[in-house]
Specification:
The structure is a single chain. By secondary structure, this protein is mostly helical. 84% of the residues lie in helices and 0% in strands. It is built from five helices and no strands.
């Protein structure tokens, strides 16, 4: 497998954030419909897709950030930046913990099981939405721009070395 270049990696991370927003909007929409008495069977496939995305792609997204974005930023002498990265790492744990509570509910709906408590589902969805929203805002306003800037500096230095 060909290694992913840094600009492509950032594009993939940005695209995943867009997909997260889309899946969260779909989850919110389905929850509202279920709370208004809609038949769960109409939304099984949609719940299956949402559950699979957050169990697979979104989890991998966090692992990619932990491996490819955060380490260089943690080595920074900028205390605010380092604290922001540590906050994001802690967020990953909280998001995963909340997902472990939410995922079985979505899976149960997708498999046609009855008995999902809609009040509990709503609470877990609200927590999940808040965690992800705040997390993504911090990444997109501080972490990604800083990481992209560091990469640009490294790339310029590499080009200069090669030109010498």
């Amino acid at each position: 497998m060909k290694p992913v270049s840094q600009p492509d990696r950032f594009q993939a991370l940005d695209e995943c954030h867009q997909q997260i927003h889309e899946h969260l909007a779909a989850l919110t929409d389905v929850l509202e419909k279920l709370q208004s008495g809609a038949d769960e069977s109409q939304y099984r496939d949609q719940m299956r897709v949402i559950e699979a995305f957050f169990t697979g792609n979104a989890l991998q997204h966090h692992l990619d950030e932990e491996k490819n974005v955060f380490p260089k930023l943690l080595a920074s002498d900028n205390a605010e930046l380092v604290q922001a990265v540590r906050t994001l790492q802690q967020d990953h744990g909280w998001i995963e913990q909340n997902w472990r509570e939410l995922s079985p509910m979505l899976r149960a709906i997708s498999e046609g099981e009855s008995g999902v408590d809609l009040t509990e589902l709503q609470h877990n969805v609200e927590v999940f939405l808040a965690l992800l929203h705040d997390h993504i805002v911090l990444e997109e306003t501080l972490i990604y721009p800083e990481a992209k800037g560091q990469f640009a500096v490294e790339l310029a230095a590499r080009k200069q070395r090669l030109a010498s």
